[in-house]
Amino acid sequence: MEYALISFDLQGTLTNSAFSDEFWMEMLPELYAKKYAVSTEAAKRSLKNIFEKIGVYDPRYYSIEYWLKELGVRENFHDLVLRMRHRPEFYRDTAELLKGLRALGHVLIISSSTTRQCIEVELGDHRVLFDRVFSSLDDCSMAGKPPEFYARIAQEMRIHPRAALHVGDSKEMDVENATSAGWHSFYFNKDTPRDALLAELKRTLL
């Protein structure tokens, strides 16, 4: 099928999640531990409880700025990035796929629940591969990726939802919610070997 728009999730689909995982699972607990004078392990438990309580459709779940302000951190996100061990890693195999799709004239976008500042850091020079970048939180004032997010994108891009395909690794956010909005979806299931996933995706797109 020829799609008028091909949308991609970012973290875990196009980029390695190690960078994001380090921030949320290591750096944020360290900042929390410093703020409240507790051990890092205690901070991890507290943050886990907080995130479970607020849930994935709460803006605080994704907002780096909220947490830096809440914890009284004077450094900005870019300063913290320089302290991190992991750097954003854009998968080479998907980069080649995207270049091939662009060469064929496909319209490509990013549809992410991540904040725009984090998206830009993770995309780096690969930003040129995409026609548009959408952050649900920053661009649409929505937390997570509810069906309304996909509806907003279709409206913004002036396409019928059935002409759009979204690719992502979250069963709920990327598949169920996109489908509920009338989009086609491709589940980038990380339990499947990456080579097999890409081969199937190429058959779907090319």
Can you offer a commentary on this structure?
With 206 residues, this protein is an alpha/beta fold. It is 51% helix and 11% strand. The protein has a 5-stranded parallel β-sheet, sandwiched between helices. Helix 6 links the parallel strand 2 (108-112) and strand 3.
Kindly state the percentage of residues in helix: 40-55%
Strands in their spatial order, largest beta sheet: 3-2-1-4-5
State the helix count: 10
Order of helices and strands, N to C?
EHHHHHEHEHHEHEH
Rounded mean pLDDT score? 95
Q: Predict the CATH topology of the largest domain.
A: Rossmann fold
The total of beta strands comes to 5
Q: What percent strand?
A: 5-15%
The rounded Rg comes to 18 Å
How many domains comprise the coordinates?
2
CATH homolog superfamily of the largest domain: HAD superfamily/HAD-like
Low-confidence stretches: none
Task: State the end-to-end CA separation.
Answer: 9 Å
Would you state the CATH class of the largest domain? Alpha Beta
Overall CATH architecture of the largest domain? 3-Layer(aba) Sandwich
Largest sheet: 5 strands, parallel
The helix/strand class is alpha/beta
Topology, please?
Blueprint: E1 5-8, H1 18-36, H2 40-54, H3 64-70, H4 77-83, H5 92-103, E2 108-112, H6 116-123, E3 132-135, H7 136-140, H8 147-157, E4 164-168, H9 171-180, E5 184-187, H10 194-205
Parallel strand pairs: 1-2, 1-4, 2-3, 4-5
Helix pairs in contact: 1-2
